[in-house]
Design brief:
By secondary structure, this protein is of the alpha+beta class. It is about 35% helix and about 15% strand.
């Protein structure tokens, strides 16, 4: 029984959403409870990260038990843009410890692998644009992973989609620079396609409230208008810790 992901995103999402949890082990990382699980469905298997709502530490500036939905919402945006930066992620109600997010596990790359620096730079800049769109308040270096194919993957997106500006990122030095032309083209294409944009916002409304989705649209329109990464405060614009 082999691993499904990396591979077909739709099949991976289906297993994340409906696969039977056959193994579960807690991962000691961060302030919220995180579990590595094994999912099986229709002869296929998948290793995933499970973040239950009941394991979330309360935050004063986010509604309780909503961080897992923000994890899934970030994947919805990334998928709509076609960037493939966020591992497949779903919000699932029937997890072993109740509702939570299920995200495909990112395996480590080979020890002797050398990533393509130009490709990595391009992916980092796209990820920085994604963080602006979802208003990521905690982009640490530890949340940037390389998968076995040496592609960049961004994880840990629970502190996102606040209607208030909260962007904090280790990529703050990009502030003021222009977005890559390809990223701008993808964003412009999405915003100019009423069907795609409507489907995206409908997907977000299943995970977020109306104010948060409206704020996302405003950020997207502003990013398209300016074409530049926002300038951040040298101190407050960077995450606390690694």
């Amino acid at each position: 029984m082999g691993e499904v992901w990396p591979g077909d995103a739709e099949e991976t999402e289906a297993i994340l959403a409906r696969g039977e949890v056959t193994e579960i082990a807690e991962v000691v990382a961060g302030s919220n409870r995180v579990f590595q699980v094994r999912l099986e469905m229709d002869g296929k298997s998948l290793t995933a990260v499970y973040k239950p709502a009941r394991g979330e530490r309360p935050l004063w500036d986010f509604p309780p038990h909503t961080l897992y939905r923000r994890e899934a919402a970030t994947y919805v945006v990334d998928k709509a843009l076609g960037w493939g930066l966020v591992p497949p992620t779903v919000a699932r109600r029937d997890g072993p410890l109740g509702p939570g997010s299920m995200q495909a596990w990112v395996a480590e790359p080979p020890e002797d692998a050398a990533p393509d620096r130009l490709q990595l730079e391009e992916e980092l800049r796209r990820l920085a644009a994604l963080d602006v769109l979802v208003n990521n308040g905690d982009r640490k270096a530890a949340h940037l992973l390389l998968d076995p194919g040496l592609h960049l993957r961004g994880i840990d997106h629970g502190v996102t989609f606040s209607p208030e500006f909260k962007l904090r990122t280790v990529l703050a030095d990009l502030g003021g620079e222009r977005l890559p032309a390809a990223a701008m083209a993808d964003l412009t294409s999405l915003l100019g396609d009423r069907r795609r944009l409507g489907a995206l916002e409908a997907g977000l409304l299943r995970l977020l409230d109306q104010e948060e989705v409206a704020a996302f649209r405003r950020r997207a329109l502003e990013l398209r208008r300016s074409g530049r990464y926002p300038l951040l405060d040298p101190f407050w614009g960077r995450p606390f810790g690694r």
